[in-house]
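Ligand: FE2/S2 (inorganic) cluster. Inputs:
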Amino acid sequence: MSQDCDCECKSPVDVIIDRWNADPDFVIEMFQDIQDGYRCIPADALNRVAERTGKPRGVLFHIITFYKAFSLEQRGEKEIQICTGTACYVKGAPDVLAAFERELKIRSGETTPDRHFTLSEVRCVGACGLAPVVVVGEDVIGGVTPSMVAGIVKKYSKEG
Ligand code: FES
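Predicted complex:
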């Protein structure tokens, strides 16, 4: 990690902390930016945010583990989120999730060994009319059936 200075040797984490003026009221925003950049919250980054904002490390750790948006382990390049909210659940989300688990050979919450995909569950993404819904990155895919899963994985795979 770099020291406090205005030269170009600043670490990306310091640049993010500066963006929020090292204000302890904006640690969640800092973590969002760090998560976007690193696809996780590295331990060094957590320590640096604690050091520069004055927030206790334990409080920051609690924040990171409380919010599903944050991860201490690096997530895949593409996050596949299966909506398991009520509307999606009754329209077959559990079968869709099981099909993704089989296709990717990982369980919900895990990342593929090549760090390309992370599979997770979300509660209602506000598109219940399209249930069951899967979100891949910024794309919302509606009416997903288990038979569509292999095609979706192929589309978003590295070669896809
Ligand atoms: S329950 Fe899945 S989008 Fe609302």
